[in-house]
Amino acid sequence: MPDLPGLHAGDPARRIPPASVARLTIYLRALNSLIADGTERVSSEELADAAGVNSPILRKDLSHLGSYGTRGVGYDAQFLTRQISSALGLTLDWRVAIIGVGNLGRALAGYPGFVSRGFGIVALVDADQLVVDTEVGYLRVSAVDELEAVLERTRTNIAVLCVPTSVAQEMCDRLVDAGISSILSFAPVVLQVPDHVQVRKVDMSTELQILAYHAQRAQEPDLGPISRAQ
Amino acid sequence: MPDLPGLHAGDPARRIPPASVARLTIYLRALNSLIADGTERVSSEELADAAGVNSPILRKDLSHLGSYGTRGVGYDAQFLTRQISSALGLTLDWRVAIIGVGNLGRALAGYPGFVSRGFGIVALVDADQLVVDTEVGYLRVSAVDELEAVLERTRTNIAVLCVPTSVAQEMCDRLVDAGISSILSFAPVVLQVPDHVQVRKVDMSTELQILAYHAQRAQEPDLGPISRAQ
DNA sequence: TCCTGTGAACTCGTTCACAGCG
DNA sequence: CGCTGTGAACGAGTTCACAGGA
């Protein structure tokens, strides 16, 4: 099937491969840091180094957005930042509610990288009466009974789930019923949600276990097939 | 090249694809939860459902470890748990040091899922004199000046980096120089490390941005190539 | 007959080499 | 001439269909 007229690489309708989307967020951070250091123009090689990838894959990733570089020269750092932000939808305003204000929820509420780049925390919700109505990072904590009302009033479009594992699915169901379709979960469980809901998981125990796997293999190099063959 | 004698699928020397390793940790959790509910035997279909994957890929993942199921029946939940744990290296003891005892470091120190399954927190380290020598979750916080001595004394083999972005690379270098080769970082930067060092990153702002990308696309269904073609 | 284990087909992602433009 | 943008080759990962043992 030939491309339709008006549908070139830079068209926002063109879906960006998931692996590219993940890397685009890294490029954005690398660009920020380069711009902070006074960089105006950057080559694919330089940006790739800063992002910890190789330059062909960076160019291929950027090509999904369109042709925003200058051949023989490189990319305008500011302009490229805007293009990536726009492609990722970071120019819209994202209203984040943190559900569960324990140690982790508190850490997130105070996390500076959270507020930057279009994400604003608009609500904190907790079940513990000792926490409800206290102030955490300039926001008053709401009671979980009022969850649905708070989500509606604040026009929350992203929820961050920091509740104990045992109530994570239940709370997730309430979020979905309240019309939330983007959830970032810190609970170490597989959440069951309808197809239209996007769930991303941040999971420290999985990451630790992956580290353990690699460390274990590094400890036993003599078990490798090559050395065993000799 | 034919397989060498003694090198079958279940041999620990056989490298497990990264994508499978990540899922194996999920199966482990799903199995735990099934066992807690009294399950003794489980089919690939049931376990796959609990883990949120399809059954062929679960069977393929398990086949990297060996043939631990019974055809026509399924898997013994306890036995399979032991086999996966062993393949991931979770039977060894992993000594974790938390570097940076801010909000996030504190949250991790108290995180129950952390201590379970072979991971034990053995040290807390911070640069803030107000925090040093205080007790956090039954451990005394050590000064960052003593980092190298603490890592050696506690025989730390995994470090968790929860320090501010600005000092993350510097602290990472010190960890590497002190002989640490497994690092879990919460800092939103690309850490430069030698090849033999494994770094895993947990990155909330990346995850949020990925959610934003999908939510943005869901908001504008009319831009899809199919509907535009009509 | 049931459900596991696995080659073979296929899809997705990465690497490469170079055409093309400034 | 330099660096971007991209088709084409390659490799990793997933799906499928079914062979094969309990």
TrEMBL record, chains A, B:
Signal sequence interval, chain numbering: none
DNA-binding region: 26-65
Isomerase in keyword set: no
UniProt keyword annotations, A-Z: Cytoplasm, DNA-binding, NAD, Repressor, Transcription, Transcription regulation
GO molecular function: DNA binding; DNA-binding transcription factor activity
A GO BP entry: negative regulation of DNA-templated transcription
Pfam families (alphabetical): CoA_binding (PF02629), Put_DNA-bind_N (PF06971)
Entry GO terms, CC: cytoplasm
Positions bound to NAD(+): 100-105
InterPro entries, A to Z: CoA-bd, NAD(P)-bd_dom_sf, Rex_actinobacterial-type, Rex_DNA-bd_C_dom, Tscrpt_rep_Rex, WH-like_DNA-bd_sf, WH_DNA-bd_sf
Alphabetical list of Gene3D superfamilies matching this protein: NAD(P)-binding Rossmann-like Domain, Winged helix-like DNA-binding domain superfamily/Winged helix DNA-binding domain
Domain CoA-binding, chain residue ranges per copy: 89-190
Annotated localization: Cytoplasm
Domain of life where this protein originates: Bacteria
Family: Belongs to the transcriptional regulatory Rex family.
Function: Modulates transcription in response to changes in cellular NADH/NAD(+) redox state.
Subunit structure: Homodimer.
Protein name listed in UniProt: Redox-sensing transcriptional repressor Rex
Organism of origin: Arthrobacter echini
Gene from which the chain derives: rex
